[in-house]
């Protein structure tokens, strides 16, 4: 059994969080990750409604034995924090407040009886979330799928571990037991995993996203802002998104086109043009597999590898 601060604190058996991927991580995916021994986080994206969150929470709660977690984009709460109210109404155990200063929201999370964690991409981010009073941090590297920073996972993880007394998790490029074993051996308390789960049948989103991920190699990603600009998603400029390459990125990435042009050329229903956010571990996803099976395999293999040196 892989026992860490994360497993002891949450009462889980696998030191793994399912990433709160907006538009992909709903209640079914989160619940299956939790049922397998980790904790799946539902992605509470800025466009989700309280009704959607309540419905997805019911699914996750039934599958996962009542344990819930959510992830929110902190920068989007400044204009409207009602989504946080909707999340806290579901009585989660963990709330991830990432991509921005969580200070205005951490007290509310704690008052609701939940742990507050934040993904960070730099040491400067670490100092901000430490001051905000979060309970743990996730060092998210440039390899990660979706929105992320510009420092690789291993350099960032080492620097964060050397710079804080908070529990530290790792994210970015972790998609197998080898990856989990590596970050645990380095001193992390667990991992946050996204890309490894993206081809699972429990994900929300178009079928083509699963097919494209299975067909992709680890060189088939690009760090870009064209999908945000095409869909009028107001992400702060410091965070680009890592996605699978396709005809759209070949045509528009790095071109400097305006948002109207990008929006006119975009079609989310077309596999050649629609966004599939995924990380550099894409080459490790070779088939569509149930999320619970993936989590159990990661845990078993990590334990076997760490036992060699235990």
TrEMBL record:
The UniProt record lists the keyword Flavoprotein: yes
Lineage: Bacteria, Bacillati, Actinomycetota, Actinomycetes, Mycobacteriales
Entry's Gene Ontology molecular function annotations: nitronate monooxygenase activity
Family matches, as Pfam families: NMO (PF03060)
CDD domains reported for this sequence: NPD_like
Alphabetic keyword roster: Flavoprotein, FMN, Monooxygenase, Oxidoreductase
Protein name: Nitronate monooxygenase
